[in-house]
């Protein structure tokens, strides 16, 4: 008898139909850890009251709560609890070795002992940020992978020179009496996101057929069940679930979504789950009855005082504190890139009246604050930054140096340049195309480009490609394509000399502050303006005659995937929902004016 039966959902077929419980025996239990992003200790995160898939929290009159939890010691304790009752296969999706000051200044190495000794995954699949240290001369991706005790899987990662696959495509594991084929696929967008992470070293296979081929190979090798572990993103994986019939369960990561209810693809009888940002633990139970694979699922949000949250594992906590201790000395003395850490991470550097976080699509209070800090530092017309997904939440109150590094853990130098209005609007249009395309395999970022608070943008998700940007205003004035504007941002490693902030076009009059990183700029801004009071201000809005777009998961149905248009005729519009198989779009929801 499973003493944790109340933790999990009801048994269903892979096509979603409920099945009679019969016996309650479980053949195999899978635990999924994803997107840890260097967060060794408990931290705050924002959770949303989604209309169709929400955590079991008391939201009161709000649509969000900020809770503290997670960290390696809680993950280790929950895994130990599950392992005490079941034969558990622990699967880990990457973005582990990046995301905090500790990972930044140790090149990710500080994560190895906590992961190997206490999370102890059975399979590891790298994520896009696991390659980030390759942007420096002493990049060490392969060294980090070699330091893991778990097998590394990546069916689409090849050596730049030889085109040989670096890691196995799949492994067969015996789990609870089942022969399980585990297929691993790393992020397909690394070379587009940041060429410096891979150029001259790694190539990435991108076609979803690679996933199907590996799954078929695992079945031919004797697998009773095939699961895929990836770090590509929920939209991509849901579409792949419709196109790759040989996979039974897909464990997704990268987009930091919380599938409290799994995504079930009836056509192929495939289940897709994604397990948040490392402070959550996904669980999928499988059993085979009369030749039918059945499943049940639960996503544990390991928040303080949560119903299913155990006491932290003491040994794991000790390992974590040993890794973090040097960062809390009076003068840590770490250097990396353009950054120097000369103060302990618990140094209070400011205060905030409202919680700060960036788990949103169009606009977030954190990204606006960051851009305002850049603009003030350089006294420019505007500032622009990538709408990154990673980063914990900061509740109202004191802000520490360590918390700032969780939002921007890169030690790239800040910079400024001059751009034409046409360059800025074309750049924004490209990001809208990426985010509102109806073809999930083309979606990369999952967040719209963000600017300082003096920039307002109107978009139309229903418009044809190249026409989704309706208007862009700076200080209330429509941007002039022939006018020049001074722009504050940062210099990414490996980018062309005149390309700043991932904008993809040449700036004029480029100035780089080699000794100043984004965290330094934010500290200076907080020292002058604390307490800061930032909320979502509607800086990016949809046109009155266009379709809407969700800013947070609380704004619409789950899954949290944006709409797009059919490029075939430029008119058909798919309201916020998963894209149907074959990209067959509904007739309603047309906008013929753009």
Automatic annotation (TrEMBL):
Residue ranges occupied by any 5'-Nucleotidase C-terminal domain in the UniProt entry: 348-489
Annotated ranges, domain Calcineurin-like phosphoesterase: 30-258
Keywords, alphabetical: Signal
Keyword Ligase: no
InterPro entries with a match to the protein in the record: 5'-Nucleotdase_C, 5'-Nucleotdase_C_sf, 5_nucleotidase/apyrase, Calcineurin-like_PHP, Metallo-depent_PP-like
Domain of life of the source: Archaea
Region Disordered, annotated ranges: 1-25
One Pfam assignment: Metallophos
Biased composition annotated in UniProt, kind: Basic and acidic residues: 1-10
Name this polypeptide is given: Bifunctional metallophosphatase/5'-nucleotidase
Organism listed in the record: Halobellus rarus
